[in-house]
Amino acid sequence: MAELQMLLEEEIPAGRRALLDSFTNLERVAEYCESNYVQSTDKHQALEETKSYTTQSLASVAYLINTLANNVLQMLDIQASQLRRMESSVNHISQVW
Question: Fewest beta carbons less than 10 Å away: which of 18, 26, 64, 96?
Answer without folding.
Answer: 96
